[in-house]
Amino acid sequence: MTSTYRSLLAAGAFCLLVASPFFASSCGDSSPPAVHAGEVPRHDGTFRLYDAQGRELLLHGVNARVEGLFDVTFDDGRIPLEPIPPFTEEDCRFLGEDLGLDHLRLPVNWSAIEPENDVFDEAYIDRILEVAAMCERHGVYTLVDFHQDGFSKEIGEDGAPLWAIVPAPTMLLEGPLDDLGDRRLSAQVGDAFDTFNTNEAGGWDEFSEMAVHVARRIDGRPGVIGLEIFNEPYIFFRDGLLIDFHRRVIDDVRRVAPSLALFFEPTSFRNISDFNAADVQIERDNVVYSPHVYSDVFENGWQAEDTALVAFSIDGARTEAETHRAALYVGEFGHDDSARGALFVSTALDLFDQNAASWAYWLYEEWSQGSWGLYDATETPPGRVALRQGRADLLARAYPVAISGHVASFHYDAATKRLDVTLERATAGEHVLAAPTRTYPNGVRVLCDGVEATTTVGAGRAHTTCRGTSLVLEPSP
Fold this sequence. Notes:
477 residues, alpha/beta, globular, TIM Barrel
């Protein structure tokens, strides 16, 4: 086990400190030592993630649909919707060591967690915990994401179980899934969301009961760093009702898992509009705002290559997070394996750094819906063929994983492979920097105020101390 999140895992969660007159840290003993109960944390007006030692954390990771967890098969003879790749410990090692990533956003489905009303599949939840523990051994931690696309696999791609669809579907669908856009706009999906969004049939009660059950099982378990409440809420979910839904689930979960960090999203309309002008604050502590950034990707493939639009989206996301007094985590962004796609991803990565935003790339491995994943999958039947080298190179970048003190700013130069971090209030504690072996095959050196610092390097991480104001990581000379 690496030391990056040793104290985080002992506490079972990370903390969000909010510079707000309304909230103080709810993390109890996990709070940074300088902050006492009831005292308002005063940093620089930004909203960051912290571990139990008080180190600022930054999350860089990927989404991964995992065989046996992404629920797209049927037991009544219908054709599965799509093939889902296996995910092994070698994948965890590759993410943590080769790419230097520190977490996995893991989509899971209500349909598999609770296939029958009030009947929970404990073996399925065990599998979630197995993946989290497996990746934790390689410094990769897991955000469990209650995922949905098209409300349910029965009428869309994934999400709710059949028993929770109200009104009951007039037609059950099957694979292959080559019409997801049409399914998302279908009357069946629209009716199901209309009922759920207003809690007309008690859908919030059923969903929250499921979330509480999962939260109780995963809270404090090895490798788990949080729970995302609901992926891409329906485009017509009114802001006020959506916030009420989030609050309901957050409050219920906190009764059984008070330290579990919870992530919440705006509606999927933000994927198109690039902003969310919500006038209702979440008003809950230790929460993380997690929009997606797909500026013009779905509408026009980002053919105009308008980098200003991406900047508008990410700047707005930071403002939205601050409105909610929450940290910012972009749970999805990405584009296809093309030169334009590479420009989109590299643009977003630089802007995330400028805004100290955590992120998870969509998607690790994709067999069925385009060329967004890190692997080319062109054979029939599909399988892992070859790593998309350019996309892997973009994601394998140095960044401050955990900093003892405050990160005033940081910048990664992809050409020179140099990371510059400006520190404020640095302490004698350990700093952890990502040093992916893919980018630094010959190792790295770390400078503290221009002087080479004693550094331990291994498994895609560089561990060092520095009480100065300048921290630099660069390739070994």
